[in-house]
Design brief:
Layout (H helix, E strand, L loop, with lengths): L11 H11 L29 H12 L9 E2 L12 H7 L2 H4 L11 H18 L3 E2 L6 H16 L3 E5 L4 H11 L5 E5 L10 H7 L4 E8 L10 H10 L3 E6 L17 E5 L15 E5 L3 H5 L4 E7 L5 E8 L19 H38 L4 E2 L10 E6 L4 H10 L2 E2 L2 E2 L11 E4 L6 H15 L2
Helix pairs in contact: 3-11, 5-11, 6-7, 11-13
Length: about 450
């Protein structure tokens, strides 16, 4: 295939020379990892040119096929959750000082965005109860992958242990991050009744090759393992790092990862002021305890506070362990333009709620979760929840003699996005539905959900 493009002024001879240097026969070989069926052969077929008015009308017709939050009751979770966002958060983000200064490439003249990121780091560090938090990662999944690579660099070992009920989507991203570093990921068991970690199974799998043990808090299925601290002790007894993945909204009422013994903390910042937005943009939380080895292997960047010679407060980037700022071969990560504006949103959100507001948020979510579990468990033919454990924000249930796909479809027809069929991730949980409850759901919403499910069950 000859490479011809008006903006790439290469001759056929130059293309042939480049391919020869690469040891390739033609340009198609550069894309051999893409299945041939996805290649377009021939010319693109376009309709006639449209006027601006026609384009607007066409776009409106496409958008009208979507259902917006508010038109349906949304109980979807599994990694992106519906939460209330105060209007002032968006107003702060619209300020040109933040909206246009998306990254502080010139720190000496970017004091505003640097201060906002410093505040984000400080608030998040206090919330997680660790000393250092970066600003920031793309999402929980990429933060997880980076934490596994970080653990290998620190411990110089190539095995990571992860729990049975982890997000499969996050795990696949982590596998992609780990493959070039030859990191081996191995699963350990979790009790299928109570949701606690099988410590004997964990101990049988941890050895001198294990760099870190990972756990999610709460689990992907919403239950909180009762022996998280014990998992950390097993990891530390074998000189491995303890990595905790957390949904930060529970930290107003449950113990922090730092107090549970976490060496590295990762998580998703989306619940703290970011909309669902079809699954992004998100924000990856990543922090660690005060340890020079950990800090110097932390990807991304850290913003610090100092003073000028005149005694004025000044902010600066104190760690930039990415390939744009240091020698490529010494970089811990190639993360580039990160979620700086999202970090500003989270700093604004946390500042608005304050300590008491954040505690109240956790109480509201926990109370609503318990209420919906109670209401669903009263329906004949419904098992809710599937685990005998404390649940926060999410839980699983199943309907006797009905497929999860059918239940979800029928509830959708009643304008309820009821959850996710997680049986496709876990063979031993066939027809299990993961549903989500947050502070946006009123008692009426939860009652409507329960009554609608009752109608589906009785069909």
């Amino acid at each position: 295939m000859a490479l011809k493009h008006p903006f790439i002024g290469l001759t056929d001879e130059e293309v042939s020379s480049m391919l020869s240097e690469l040891g390739l026969k033609d340009v198609d070989e550069l894309f051999r990892d893409i299945p041939p069926k996805f290649f377009l052969r021939g010319e693109l077929k376009f309709s006639r040119q449209l006027t601006e008015a026609e384009v607007r009308e066409s776009i409106r017709n496409i958008i009208s096929k979507n259902l917006a939050l508010g038109e349906v009751k949304v109980f979807l979770g599994g990694g992106v959750w519906p939460h209330f966002i105060p209007s002032v958060v968006k107003e702060i983000l619209r300020r040109s000082e933040f909206l246009t200064s998306y990254t502080p490439y010139q720190p000496e003249i970017s004091q505003g965005i640097l201060q906002a990121l410093f505040e984000y780091q400080s608030l998040m560090a206090e919330l997680l109860d660790v000393e250092v938090v970066n600003a920031s990662m793309y999402d929980w999944a990429t933060a997880l992958g980076e934490s596994f690579r970080m653990a290998k660099r620190v411990k110089r070992r190539n095995k990571i242990l992860y729990p049975q009920y982890v997000s499969r989507e996050r795990l696949e991203v982590a596998r992609t991050y780990c493959k070039p570093s030859n990191i081996i990921l191995q699963e350990y068991s979790v009790d299928s009744t109570y949701g606690s970690v099988d410590l004997e199974d964990l101990k049988s799998k941890i050895d001198r090759d294990v760099a870190a043990v990972y756990i999610e808090y709460p689990s992907y299925l919403g239950f909180i393992p009762s022996n998280i601290r014990d998992v950390g002790e097993v990891a530390h007894d074998h000189d491995a790092l303890f990595i905790v993945g957390v949904d930060p909204t529970l930290l107003g009422i449950f113990e922090s990862p730092g107090r549970l013994g976490a060496d590295i903390v990762v998580g998703e910042g989306q619940p703290l002021g970011l909309p669902m937005s079809f699954g992004g943009p998100l924000l990856g939380i990543m922090g660690c305890r005060m340890d020079s080895q950990l800090i110097h292997q932390l990807p991304g960047r850290l913003i610090g506070l100092t003073e000028t010679i005149r005694g004025e407060r000044a902010y600066t980037m104190i760690l930039q362990a990415r390939e744009q700022h240091i020698k490529r071969e010494k970089a811990t990560s190639n993360i580039c333009t990160n979620q700086a504006l999202c970090a500003v949103a989270i700093a604004a959100y946390l500042s608005l709620l304050g300590k008491n507001g954040f505690i109240e948020l956790g109480k509201q979510i926990l109370a609503r979760t318990r209420y919906l579990i109670k209401m669903l468990s009263r329906i004949d033919g419904v098992q809710a929840p599937l685990f005998k454990a404390v649940h926060f924000k999410e839980f699983t249930y199943k309907v006797k003699n009905k497929k999860a796909e059918y239940v979800l479809k029928r509830l959708y027809e009643k304008n309820i996005l009821a959850g996710i069929d997680v049986g496709r991730f876990y063979n031993h949980l066939p027809e299990a539905i993961l549903t989500c409850v947050t502070e946006i759901h009123s008692k009426d919403d939860l009652d409507i959900y329960a009554e609608s499910l009752r109608e589906v069950v009785e069909e």
